[in-house]
Specification:
The complex is a heterotrimer of chains A (272), B (203) and C (209). Chain A is built from eleven helices and six strands. Chain A is α/β, with parallel strands linked by helices. Chain A has a single domain, classed as Rossmann fold, CATH 3.40.50. In chain A, helix 4 links the parallel strand 2 and strand 3. Chain A starts with 8 loop residues before the first helix and ends with a helix. Helix content of chain C is 81%, strand content 0%. Classes of the chains: A alpha/beta (272), B mainly alpha (203), C mainly alpha (209).
């Protein structure tokens, strides 16, 4: 029984990696049930006015891109399908806008979106909460230049949004992985200005964000990879998140099994 | 299997494998990967913000449009580097004080609205099991955190005990989600190795 | 002026923001409009501090031939090489972006995904039902682990419903709200201490009174 508590960590690593590779090569095809939360989130984005302007904020860096890139793709695609104007901007997470730029460019081309007219990438700006407040007062002055180094006011899409207020912006879609993130968008932009806030949350922080969903401060939330898989089904474009769900199932089973094994060993040796 | 010939994909694969060598044990390849990452990430911040924010502020706004007050911001920012000159290191406290004070002002101005909404969302009509459980949960968790309350009192102690259970549920839930999140990040890397690099499943 | 000056700046800048946000007159005057830009730009400049600090630290390591100094040399070479490239090409340049896309983001993502292995091994080693609390935590962790992956529903069709709607939506929400409110009160108390000049950690030293 003591052996059950002393499995070499490298065996766990190898088994984990093997499970991931095998389930990717031979998917189980388990169905992913769509939760009420995913439906609610989808409806919040779907039901914006046809000429809506949304801010899509990739508040993340390479550490979280494995989970948030598919969310960005799903949200950008959904907004493009609905014909919304999309403004990409973030603060402090300097890598975010560059990471998403190629996905945005590809999807924009697919939908005939013109840069500067239908969508724009303003890049990352320093200042966190203060930047957000500056954007509420004067969006152009706060951003100065876009990702390509051109003055923001030179683009037609930016003429629609001189300030980040409910008058000009219909929703903020924030992909969140830490601080600053969705709570800052909520406190400094969305709650004071009355703008709808929908977030995409990394699975790790979903529990922490649930109180904001219950209070209605977050109008919707794509809850981690599972939530993204549900969202991909709702928009009719299965993507990376949906593909990953079989692997997640196998991994969940593996970790559960190891925890149980460890505890069986522990209980058996404790009685001795 | 159709192994990629794209140098970009090969670079990605080598980087990923270099990092995963750490799982066997600490080794020079891992340390090299770690060092390169740190160096690139630090420089990227610097270059990106310089060309997209600082330079336009100075060149376009301060010089181009004659908004000279931007220079004051630049000087304020540069003052932080006085910390490297011991005789005038105290001057670096000024920009720091401004940032801390300014940030504090914003926290006091905007954060209360967020958490007051959290409080009002707790006091729900107690007409469903969900609402009752949320109400009990928040109050008992807060009771657990009130360290000035006498926990020897059976009522307070009992409520705090319930609070402890709620905290354990929240942390258990956080753990379950964290495990899946971390593996999800690995899945994304495995995708690169398996499909982009090795071309498994491709003709 | 070495301590008092910065202290006055801290309190005054807090008061200016508060006045601008809480009072009609403050809003009319727009006192913070210009200060906001000052904050953003000065803060952006200060982010270079990390770059300078790293240079100084690793330069010292190289000079003293500290263990692993070779990595410090590599770090400095990569940092300044990439900086040079950035100055020549800017951040949108082809080579600068190529390195970013194929090395930096990939390395970052791989480093963070390492934790998948470490957390699984740690869970196996440390997750023991030693106490009542630990048992609750473990049972919930396993319940959520299976609820958040489709396997839960494959075992029992209501698993994800109970996991998402009840555990996450009700019990977890209540628990986390308590934790969040505690954190908010703490942050508010610290902010008040700064405003009143009682908190001085940002000025260096032990910082509190």
């Amino acid at each position: 029984m003591e052996r059950l508590m002393k499995i070499d960590r490298r065996i766990i690593y190898l088994l984990g990696a093997a499970i991931v590779f095998l389930t990717m090569l031979y998917p189980l095809g388990l169905p992913v049930a769509i939760s009420d939360l995913a439906r609610q989130t989808y409806n919040e984005v779907e039901n914006l006015p046809d000429d809506a302007v949304v801010i899509l904020s990739p508040m993340y860096d390479s550490g979280a891109m494995g989970e948030l890139n598919p969310m960005f793709v799903a949200l950008f695609r959904h907004c493009a399908e609905r014909g919304y104007k999309i403004i990409i901007v973030n603060t402090q997470w300097v890598q975010g806008p560059q990471i998403v730029h190629k996905f945005a460019t590809e999807i924009a081309e697919e939908y005939g979106y013109v840069y500067g007219e239908d969508w724009i990438n303003l890049g990352s700006k320093p200042g966190a909460a203060i930047f957000l407040q500056t954007a509420v007062k004067d969006f152009w002055e706060a951003c100065i230049e876009d990702f390509n180094g051109q003055p923001v006011e030179s683009y037609p899409i930016m003429q629609l949004v001189p300030k980040v207020t409910a008058e000009y912006v219909d929703a903020c879609l924030v992909l969140n992985c830490g601080t600053p993130g969705a709570p800052e968008w909520l406190a400094y932009v969305c709650q004071p200005e009355g703008i709808k806030l929908v977030i995409g949350e990394i699975q790790m922080s979903v529990p922490e964000s649930m109180p904001y969903v219950q209070s209605g401060q977050y109008a919707g939330m794509i809850a981690g990879s599972r939530g993204c898989a549900e969202y991909e089904q709702l928009i009719g474009h299965p993507g990376q998140a949906l593909k990953a769900q079989d692997t997640m199932s196998a991994i969940a089973l593996m970790v559960t099994l190891f925890i149980i094994l460890g505890n069986i060993g522990y209980l058996a040796t404790r009685k001795k | 299997m159709n192994i990629s010939t794209d140098p970009a994909i090969w670079t990605q694969a080598i980087c990923i494998l270099a990092v995963y060598t750490y799982l066997y044990k600490d080794n020079p390849i891992w340390r090299l990967a770690e060092t390169v990452y740190l160096a690139l990430a630090t420089t990227y911040w610097f270059v990106f913000y310089f060309f997209t924010y600082i330079q336009p502020a100075i060149v376009d706004k301060a010089i181009g449009e004659g908004e000279w007050h931007y220079f004051l911001a630049v000087i304020l920012g540069l003052m932080i580097f006085f910390r490297y000159i011991p005789s005038v290191a105290w001057l670096a406290r000024y920009p720091m004080s401004f940032w801390v004070g300014y940030g504090t002002g914003y926290i006091l101005s905007f954060e209360p609205a967020v958490w007051l909404t959290q409080i009002t969302s707790t006091f729900l009509a107690l007409n469903s099991i969900q609402n009752i459980l949320i109400f009990i949960g928040v109050l008992s968790t807060l009771t657990y955190f009130f360290f000035t309350l006498a926990k020897e009192n059976p009522v307070v102690g009992g409520v705090a005990e319930v609070g402890k259970w709620y905290i354990m549920i929240a942390l258990g839930s956080a753990f379950g989600n964290t495990v899946l999140y971390r593996w999800n990040l690995f899945v994304a890397r495995a995708n690169t190795l398996l499909f982009d690099w090795l071309g498994v499943g491709q003709a | 002026m070495r301590k008092e000056g910065p202290m006055i700046v801290t309190v005054l800048s807090s008061l200016v923001v508060l006045f601008s946000n809480y009072f009609f007159l403050g809003q009319q005057w727009g006192l913070t409009d210009r200060l906001d830009y000052w904050f953003n730009i000065s803060y952006g400049i200060a982010l270079a501090l990390g770059f300078v600090n790293l240079t100084i630290i690793h330069w010292k390591y190289v000079q003293r031939r500290r263990e692993g100094w070779v990595y410090s040399v590599i770090l400095l070479l990569v940092m300044y090489g990439y900086l040079l490239l950035g100055i020549v090409e800017q951040h949108t340049g082809p080579t600068f972006s190529w390195i970013y896309d194929n090395m930096m983001t990939v390395l970052g993502a791989a480093v963070f995904s390492l934790l998948a292995f470490l957390i699984s091994s740690a869970a196996y080693r440390a997750f023991r039902i030693r106490t009542k609390e630990a048992t609750i935590l473990l049972v919930c962790a396993i319940f959520i682990l299976l609820a958040r992956a489709p396997i839960g529903d494959a075992i029992w069709s209501r698993w994800s419903y109970w996991g998402n709607e009840w555990f996450m939506g009700v019990l977890n929400t209540a628990g986390y709200r308590g934790i969040l409110l505690g954190a908010y009160v703490g942050a508010f108390a610290v902010a008040l201490r700064i405003l009143l000049g009682l908190e001085r950690a940002h000025l260096g030293g032990t910082g509190t009174q």
